[in-house]
Design the sequence.
């Protein structure tokens, strides 16, 4: 039986995703330069860095959200379970079922709570019967720690929930397709401290089944929820390591300057 | 780290807390020197002043801990900043102990004066003074290495502590001889031995401060064994 001190560490060396030599251009602008990162299984990885450093850009590369941006191009290699996600044969819609995303502002569909969660499994044909779909919706809402709050109003509109509940609904929607990786872009920045704590607790629970990548401006949030931290600065990945090491003994002076509040 | 925080009040907080440590260090150095003078001269007034002054040292330690708690709670320090806060707490605790040893030296000085003049006290006085001077220098260097983040000086302090240990061992043998020669020496020699032992412990605390400087500058607690003098606890039977 491992004690808490051991369990809070990374529990695996298994890579879910591997990025090598990734470059991103927005037209002439070289936004990301030579990024190498491993996204470990059952681990929360935090991307930190000042605005414009490239952390969100890189997050969006991981499920090809940059495909839709005019003039954006991605070079290098990003593997999911050993397969290149930029391969011509990969369907981005299928990819995004495996690499789910949660955004800064809760963005539930203007549909019922139930339909929000059922949407992904329906379009991907994951349920063969109504009972099976009910089962997926319930387990997803439970995983998102929302079931007890919404089980009596599954037909109510998702947009009628509180901000924190809406964000957890979006997380339920993302986990409903049973993804391998969950990407979160500033998932708490529109939430109050209590809702933030609930989402952070949820992220820690999700780690048991998924690997989670979170972009956050709150260094304290990165310190609280992640086991691995990557620091981006001016389009470079400056330092990647255990969160404890990054916050107590960073190797690069730029990392130290950023986390101690000396450069913006 | 020479760069300033964007939030300048953070710099002021860290500077203020480190200034308290340096002030505490100054008070402790004075306490040791005064206690040694009081012992050598049999000066009861000075001994009493050392005892009373220990209160100021204790108050400073309390204030440093309060300020450290405040910085942790309000500013969530990380990396080098975190090490500053952790190290000031440990250094303050080491200095407080050294202050206590100086106070104990003053108390025993009072007891020795009450015993009346004994030749062993006069004889040991010079050795204890030398030992006190060495430990004051050690402590002063440890604090300087802290103030200037001088890793080489801190390493030097760690090595030099063995000189204090050797002086203590020599005094231990000397007191043992006096006590074997004449049982009337036992009471003064026990007091003198405690004083010597206390000075030796001061050296260990100076070393602990130097180790905090190593931690502060490198992020690692030194784990290499530092040179040690033989331990009187393991002396062969005479």
Sequence:
């Amino acid at each position: 039986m491992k004690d808490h001190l051991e369990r809070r560490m990374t529990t695996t060396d298994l890579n879910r995703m591997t990025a090598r030599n990734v470059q991103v251009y927005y037209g002439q602008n070289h936004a990301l330069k030579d990024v190498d990162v491993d996204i470990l299984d059952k681990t929360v990885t935090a991307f930190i860095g000042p605005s414009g450093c490239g952390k969100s850009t890189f997050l969006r590369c991981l499920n090809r959200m940059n495909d839709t941006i005019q003039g954006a191009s991605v070079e290098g290699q990003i593997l999911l379970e050993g397969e290149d996600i930029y391969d011509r044969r990969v369907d981005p819609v299928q990819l995004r079922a495996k690499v789910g995303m949660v955004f800064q502002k809760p963005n539930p569909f203007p549909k019922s709570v139930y339909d929000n969660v059922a949407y992904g499994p329906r379009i991907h044909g994951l349920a063969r019967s109504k009972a099976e779909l009910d089962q997926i919706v319930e387990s997803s809402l439970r995983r998102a720690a929302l079931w007890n709050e919404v089980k009596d109003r599954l037909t109510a509109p998702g947009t009628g929930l509180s901000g924190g509940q809406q964000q957890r609904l979006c997380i339920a929607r993302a986990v409903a397709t049973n993804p391998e990786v969950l990407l979160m872009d500033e998932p708490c920045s529109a939430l109050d401290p209590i809702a933030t704590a609930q989402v952070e607790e949820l992220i820690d629970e999700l780690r048991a089944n998924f690997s989670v990548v979170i972009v956050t401006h709150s260094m304290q949030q990165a310190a609280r929820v992640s086991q691995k931290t990557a620091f981006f600065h001016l389009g470079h990945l400056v330092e990647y390591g255990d969160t404890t090491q990054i916050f107590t003994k960073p190797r690069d002076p730029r990392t130290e300057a950023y986390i101690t509040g000396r450069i913006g | 780290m020479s760069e300033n925080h964007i939030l300048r009040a953070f710099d002021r907080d860290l500077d203020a807390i480190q200034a308290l440590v340096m002030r505490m260090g100054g008070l402790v150095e004075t306490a040791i020197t005064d206690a040694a003078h009081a012992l050598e001269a049999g000066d009861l007034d000075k001994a009493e002043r050392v005892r009373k002054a220990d209160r100021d040292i204790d108050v400073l330690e309390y204030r440093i801990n309060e300020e450290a708690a405040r910085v942790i709670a309000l500013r969530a320090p990380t990396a080098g900043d975190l090490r500053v806060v952790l190290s000031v707490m440990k250094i303050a605790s080491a200095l407080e102990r050294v202050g206590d040893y100086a106070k104990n030296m003053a108390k025993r000085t009072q007891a020795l004066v009450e015993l009346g003049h004994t030749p062993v006290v006069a004889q040991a006085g010079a050795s204890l003074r030398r030992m006190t001077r060495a430990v004051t220098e050690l402590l002063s260097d440890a604090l300087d290495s802290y103030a200037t983040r001088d890793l080489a000086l801190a390493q030097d302090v760690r090595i030099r502590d063995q000189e204090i240990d050797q002086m203590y061992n020599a005094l231990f043998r000397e007191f043992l001889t006096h006590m074997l020669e004449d049982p009337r020496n036992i009471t003064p020699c026990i007091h003198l031995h405690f004083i010597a032992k206390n000075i030796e412990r001061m050296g260990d605390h100076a070393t602990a401060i130097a180790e905090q400087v190593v931690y502060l500058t490198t992020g690692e607690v030194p784990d290499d064994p530092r040179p040690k003098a033989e331990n009187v606890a393991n002396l062969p039977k005479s």
About this structure: DSSP finds eleven helices and ten strands in chain A. Residues 130-143 of chain A form the longest helix (14 residues).
